[in-house]
């Protein structure tokens, strides 16, 4: 079990509303859904929301106009069912670890305003140097399976996030994050919020990417670094992330939208799967993509490849609505099946708001087939067994562990589930790297 964790660097307050109700109140029209990388107006928001709504897919896009974003916030806060919750991947993961793993000391570095200060779990340590006077707000447009927007019906429950952040990707917050790692000396580092740099100028982005990479290379190889990826849209920026950051972390948390997008832009397998349509990607295709990602950007266990000097990636935790997969190479990580099972268990419970000691099978269901192909190359098939649902196999020198997920039939919550899955899976996993600590 990890004793100390430093987590950064995005923190905000989530304003959670009924997506259909708010979008319909915006007085905008939309004849077809279209994905915009950046939202410049409420009409862009309507189009992009419709694009993902009809696919039942989660997404996040930045709103470049502060005035338009403020109009959206005003409309959202006027909604009868709006709720404020702690938000931002870093804050959500810190909150989850503090609540469920009290023996782990958690240090959160991110822009913390008065409302987020009150909402975060009291045992989470935080720094005064990144306090802000007014909270960053993210509007979470949630929708349920079967809801109707114009001519479209949502095939599954999900959410669309939009924001106009000032501080989460700021240089000051990043510098304080890496400073906290040096001071606090954790045995686990979690970095997330990198996706928020996507909306900054090219020069600013590159400068911050250099800062992140330079500091990652300073972290002791015996201290694992986990990267929780976020929703990406810009191909140039995303290519930078997979080349300059991904190889220099030990662990990655990723969902089906992010995985298919990375494969799409980096000439990986099954590029045609992006964007993900309603439902989920076939397991054997995800297995191909995960194997490619780890083999291309992962650590070389033999240490013989000069092109991979300093590469650390050796664990990937993939999650989508109906199944999760853990992938690992080398000997650094252990207890992966327990981490995978714990992450899968918390997904349905959080979505349905079921207590830890309650088993209400009426609310949960398996949505994968009873048998299907796991890995075409290895001719590995899956046969569901209720008392032993986890399957594991080797593909070359890579370990795969698969589990179906008990899906909530009528979710009361969709936001923050990915972060809870990753944080839980990570805290159950164990990391031990042999050899003397060296700095690359």
From TrEMBL:
InterPro entries: ADP_PFK/GK, Ribokinase-like. PROSITE patterns: ADPK. GO terms for biological process: glucose metabolic process; glycolytic process. It holds the Pfam family ADP_PFK_GK. CDD domains: ADPGK_ADPPFK (cd01938). SUPFAM superfamilies: Ribokinase-like. One of its GO terms (molecular function) is metal ion binding. GO terms for cellular component: endoplasmic reticulum. Keywords: Glycolysis, Kinase, Magnesium, Metal-binding, Transferase. Gene3D superfamilies: 3.40.1190.20. This is ADP-dependent glucokinase. It comes from Caenorhabditis tropicalis.
């Amino acid at each position: 079990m990890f004793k100390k964790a430093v987590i950064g660097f995005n923190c905000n307050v989530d304003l959670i509303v009924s997506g259909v109700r708010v979008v319909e109140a915006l007085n905008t029209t939309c004849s077809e859904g279209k994905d915009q990388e950046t939202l410049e107006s409420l009409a862009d928001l309507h189009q992009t929301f419709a694009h993902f709504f009809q696919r039942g897919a989660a997404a996040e896009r930045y709103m470049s106009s502060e005035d338009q974003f403020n109009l959206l916030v005003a409309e959202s806060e006027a909604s009868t069912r709006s709720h404020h919750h702690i938000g931002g991947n870093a804050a959500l993961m810190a909150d989850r670890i503090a609540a469920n793993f009290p023996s782990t000391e958690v240090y959160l570095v991110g822009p913390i305003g008065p409302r987020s200060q009150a909402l975060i779990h009291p045992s989470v340590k935080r720094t005064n140097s990144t306090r802000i006077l007014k909270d960053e707000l993210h509007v979470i447009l949630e929708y349920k399976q079967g809801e109707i927007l114009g001519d479209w019906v949502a095939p599954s429950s999900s959410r669309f996030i939009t924001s106009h952040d000032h501080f989460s990707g700021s240089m000051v917050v990043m510098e304080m994050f890496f400073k906290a790692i040096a001071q606090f000396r954790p045995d686990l580092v979690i970095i997330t919020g990198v996706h928020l740099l996507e909306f900054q100028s090219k020069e600013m982005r590159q400068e911050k990417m250099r800062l992140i990479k330079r500091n990652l290379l300073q972290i002791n190889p015996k201290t694992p670094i986990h990267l929780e990826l976020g929703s990406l849209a810009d191909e140039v920026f995303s290519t930078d992330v997979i080349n300059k950051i991904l190889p220099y972390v030990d662990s990655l948390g990723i969902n089906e939208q992010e995985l298919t997008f990375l494969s799409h832009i980096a000439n990986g397998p099954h590029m045609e799967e992006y964007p993900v349509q309603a439902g989920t990607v076939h397991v054997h295709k995800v297995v191909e993509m995960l194997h490619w990602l780890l083999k291309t950007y992962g650590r070389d266990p033999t240490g013989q490849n000069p092109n991979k000097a300093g590469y650390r990636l050796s664990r990937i935790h993939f999650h989508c609505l109906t199944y999760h997969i853990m992938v690992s190479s080398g000997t650094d990580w252990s207890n992966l099946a327990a981490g995978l099972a714990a992450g899968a268990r918390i997904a349905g419970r959080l979505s349905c708001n079921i207590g830890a000691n309650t088993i209400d099978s009426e609310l949960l269901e398996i949505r994968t087939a009873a048998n299907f192909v796991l890995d075409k190359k290895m001719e590995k098939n899956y046969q569901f067994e209720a008392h032993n649902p986890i399957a594991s196999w080797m593909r070359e020198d890579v370990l795969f562990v698969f589990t179906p997920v008990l899906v909530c039939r009528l979710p009361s919550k969709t936001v923050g589930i990915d972060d809870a899955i990753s944080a839980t899976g990570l805290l159950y996993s164990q990391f031990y790297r042999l050899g003397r600590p060296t700095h690359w």
